[in-house]
Amino acid sequence: MAAAAWPLSAVAGFLPASLSLTLLVTTLVVVLVLGAAAVFFEHIRKIGCTHSLERSAVSDAFFEDPNSLKKVPCPSIFDPPEKYISLIVPAYNEEHRLPEALAETLNYLKQRSAADKSFSYEVLIVDDGSTDYTSKVAFNFIKQHKIDNVRVLLLGKNHGKGEAVRKGMLHSRGELLLMLDADGATKVTDLEKLEHQVHALAKKVKSSTGASTSSSQKLSDVEIAVFGSRAHLEKQALATRKWYRNFLMKGFHLVVLLTAGAGIRDTQCGFKMFTRAAARKLFTNIRLKRWCFDVEIVYLCKHLRIPMVEVSVSWTEIPGSKVRMTSILHMVFELLLIKVGYGLGIWKIYS
User: Per its UniProt record, what CDD domains does this chain match (predicted)?
Assistant: First the structure.
């Protein structure tokens, strides 16, 4: 009969005290690492499962019209476009910064619409579970400009900027879709720079597909992404920021480079434009809900072969930023999710 296995304590009795302690510490470290890895991979798996459910779910979201007190059904990104451009504004506790930015945006859009009858627009404010009067401010703009031009989507609870942008994109009506921050850090007139690049790239894409398809292909059917960029302001920013912030940002940019690759210098600028076809592919694939969804967009553009270009835009520092030093750690964690989730094939990319 085989001898019973000796307990670990009995084996440890024959080992020197220092070696026993080393063995114990090593075992604990291995157990902790394996446990953390198991939790991490389970987290990635859950994100993938949640995304699969969201893709197949039928949306019951609606817009509230404060003028008629009726509920307006949300359109889908899969519907044909009804407007030339949609502006998606994610907002979380923006009661103070939103009014000025919205007023400037709507004045510009009204002027363009008056000068060009073919220019139609909508502004979609996505309230990401604000605890202040952000929704009240937004609904006041609907009263002034009608629900056909201004709409508010209430998410109920805070999900993160990425989720707010995703929901806005999926329920917009434009041929072109522009995401922009609620603080007005980038002038809305700069959308013309992005718009010009979209049309220029669309012309190239159409000419490359041949004359037979180029004449019938609509702008909304061409897949293009144009990223606003503050990279040209980097030297000025480095000179004014504290050294440790510069160190952290440089480190973050390095991790972004390793995750998404080269091509876009400023992934985090909140001023980006997509054609409807590009937005349909990107925002039905996106998983991240908070900080690094921008990097995921770049990653997806490369893997879906969606042409993208970076355009310099104006940018002004507006007090009240939601980004904190601890946000950098969350960003790095999300970049790791991208690398592992897509790299190991846990997250599928649907084309």
Answer: DPG_synthase
Distance CA 104, CA 106 (A): 6
Q: Strand runs (DSSP E) across the chain, as ranges?
A: 62-64, 71-73, 83-91, 121-127, 150-154, 174-179, 225-229, 272-275, 308-312
Maximum Cα–Cα distance across the chain: 96
Which pLDDT score, from 0 to 100, does residue 325 have? 64
Give CA separation, 76 vs 35, 127, 137, in Å.
Answer: 41, 18, 25
For the chain, the residue count is 351
Report pLDDT for 201.
94
Contact between 277 and 223 (Cβ < 8 Å): yes
**Checking DSSP bridges between strand 150-154 and strand 174-179, what pairing results, if any?**
unpaired
d(CA 127, CA 154) in angstroms, rounded, equals: 5
* pLDDT at position 7: 56
Surface-to-core class of residue 157, CB atoms within 10 Å of its CB (0-12 exposed, 13-18 middle, 19+ buried): exposed
- Profile the chain (351 residues) by mean pLDDT over runs of 10 residues: 51 62 82 84 80 66 84 92 98 95 97 96 97 95 95 93 96 97 93 97 83 69 95 62 61 76 86 98 94 93 95 84 69 90 92 82
**Which residue in 77, 310, 289, 311 sits closest to 174, CA to CA?**
77
From 80, 172, 68, 84, select the one nearest 126 (Cα to Cα): 172
> b/e string for 215-250 if b means 16 or more Cβ within 10 A?
eeeebbbbbbbbbbbbeeeeeeeeeeeeeeeeebbe
The residue behind tokens 């609907």 is 142
Name the phi and psi angles at 288, rounded to 5.
-70, 140
- How far apart CA 153 and CA 63 sit, in angstroms, is 6
Torsion of Cα atoms, 200 then 206 then 207 then 213, to 10°? -160
Alpha-carbon distance 263 to 334, whole Å?
A: 20
- Helices marked H in 57-133 — which ranges? 98-115
Per-residue pLDDT, 219: 94
In order of 253, 261, 307, the CA distances from 264 in angstroms are 11, 8, 12
